[in-house]
Specification:
alpha+beta, rod-shaped
Length: about 150
């Protein structure tokens, strides 16, 4: 066998060559469809969401000691007695995270409308519903001087 191979065409040889036409049975793909072939592809569907979820920070729930819980219970009883006045309150409470351990501490402020013992909720005038079991602090004009130390004997 002899080596009569023709060399591949150089770029200059094909630069001005006409574009090959497809056979009628296989028409050209529309440009829009060709572009779709190169659209971004996510091999790991949901991976970005999982990374964001892992990076999202939560805090641990604060456990009140007996003294703090007693003060909070007393404040809630005082609030219950003055609900008809719809006193302004500021409530800090824990909201557990639905997806991972921990949660977040939120603060709601407004006029207290109802303490629903059956549902375990403090309902504010604007409709905010605060789970009483998750409250860690409650403040307002109604409680002024509440946390002050007792006067000396």
């Amino acid at each position: 066998m002899s080596g009569n191979k023709t060399p591949p065409p150089s770029y200059a040889d094909i630069l001005d060559a006409p574009r090959p036409e497809p056979v009628p049975a296989h028409p050209r793909m529309p440009v829009r469809s060709r572009a779709a072939q190169f659209a971004p592809f996510a091999a790991l569907t949901g991976h970005d969401d999982a990374i964001r979820e892992t990076a999202r920070l939560t805090v641990a729930r604060i456990e009140l000691d007996e003294g703090e819980q007693a003060v909070l219970d007393s404040k809630l009883q005082l609030l219950r007695r003055h609900l008809s006045e719809q006193p302004a309150v500021q409530v800090t409470y824990f909201q557990p995270d639905a997806r991972k351990a921990g949660g977040a501490y939120l603060t709601a402020a407004g006029a207290a409308k109802k303490l629903d013992a059956h549902a375990g909720l403090l309902i504010l005038q604007d409709g905010t519903r605060v789970p009483v079991a998750e409250i860690v602090q409650i403040d307002g004009a109604l409680f002024r001087g509440w946390d002050d130390p007792p006067p000396p004997d």
